[in-house]
């Protein structure tokens, strides 16, 4: 049986390890390109092999590229980057603590790959401590129940676009799903389970979950499918589709998460809701509402699809309501 080292050599067969990769290669940071083919292989492995989530790949890629540009200005080469370089770079960032921690995590993973591929001897980011960050409440603003109802009632459902948008916003409210998960829904994911309908979501981390559909949400979705003429559509076709500009005619293309976010923001703006609200606000409201009714945390965690109950607690805004009542009683 081949050991891991032999496999790595086989995978690197297309690279001449003595070759210097041209710095003009736009896919590679200049510092990586100048370090040779071994560094180029490590870069591709880090970006395209180890990171499967496209959003993480984009964020980590930007973070590492920015640091390497910083090192290039200092005249450093990859083997000579030190922990001090990493620490000074993080101190220079005018970012929130959470963003700095993301940059540090990206650098640690990247240099780990360089160490594994023998491009550098030690990981200079491994010993650098991140800023202390204790999050007790998320930053996502909450939309009140009253405003959520106002938004639903403001949608004109005389057209297929209105029916579609009401169904999407209904899913946000009544399942606490993310727009990214809703955008992946196909016709087959609206499932008749016999006694009720369910929505089958594919979520972050490749998790697949089924969430029961309450009767009014079921009506929203079936109304949309009927008006759109999609009741007998192909199982693999997208559940929610884009329109041809302002014609209100649906295309065969699926709405993306960004499409849905823009739609929700537009609907909120038309309904006169605060600008700071976002599609994620419904997730906060649904979780807080259920916890306020005494629903056990583990059940709400199950609905939200969180692996850790501490994540669910970040969405709980009950303490904020208590604090608001207290500050209103200050008699000064």
From TrEMBL:
Residues 138-328 form the Tyr recombinase domain. It comes from Rubripirellula tenax. It comes from the Bacteria. GO terms for biological process: DNA integration; DNA recombination. Pfam families: Phage_int_SAM_1, Phage_integrase. GO terms for molecular function: DNA binding. Keywords: DNA integration, DNA recombination, DNA-binding. Residues 34-115 form the Core-binding (CB) domain. SUPFAM superfamilies: DNA breaking-rejoining enzymes (SSF56349). This is Tyrosine recombinase XerC.
């Amino acid at each position: 049986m081949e050991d891991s080292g032999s496999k790595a050599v086989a995978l690197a067969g297309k690279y001449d390890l003595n070759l210097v990769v041209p710095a003009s290669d736009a896919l590679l940071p200049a510092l990586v390109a100048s370090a040779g083919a071994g560094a180029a292989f490590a870069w591709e492995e880090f970006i395209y092999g180890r990171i499967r989530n496209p959003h993480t790949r984009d964020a980590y890629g930007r973070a590492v590229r920015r640091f390497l540009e910083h090192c290039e200005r200092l005249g450093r080469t990859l083997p000579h980057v030190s922990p001090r370089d990493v620490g000074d770079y993080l101190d220079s960032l005018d970012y929130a603590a959470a963003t700095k921690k993301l940059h540090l995590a990206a650098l640690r993973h990247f240099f780990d790959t360089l160490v594994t591929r023998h491009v550098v001897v030690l990981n200079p980011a491994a010993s650098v401590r991140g800023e202390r960050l204790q999050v007790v409440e998320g930053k996502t603003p909450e939309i009140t129940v009253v405003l959520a109802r106002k938004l639903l009632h403001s949608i004109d459902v005389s057209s297929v676009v209105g029916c579609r948008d009401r169904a999407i916003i209904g899913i946000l409210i009544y399942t606490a799903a993310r727009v990214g998960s809703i955008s992946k829904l196909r016709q087959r994911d609206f499932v008749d389970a016999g006694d009720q309908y369910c929505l089958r979501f594919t979520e972050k981390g490749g998790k697949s979950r089924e969430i029961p559909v309450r009767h009014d949400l079921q009506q929203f979705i079936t109304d949309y499918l009927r008006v759109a003429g999609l009741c007998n559509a192909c199982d693999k076709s997208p559940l929610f589709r884009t329109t041809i500009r302002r014609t209100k005619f649906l295309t065969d293309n699926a709405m993306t998460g960004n499409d849905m976010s823009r739609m929700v923001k537009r609907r909120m703006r038309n309904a006169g809701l605060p600008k700071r609200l976002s599609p994620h606000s419904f997730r906060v409201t649904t979780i807080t509402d259920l916890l306020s009714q005494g629903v056990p945390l583990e059940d709400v965690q199950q609905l939200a699809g969180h692996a850790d109950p501490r994540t669910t607690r970040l969405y709980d805004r009950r303490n904020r309501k208590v604090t608001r009542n207290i500050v209103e009683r200050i008699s000064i």
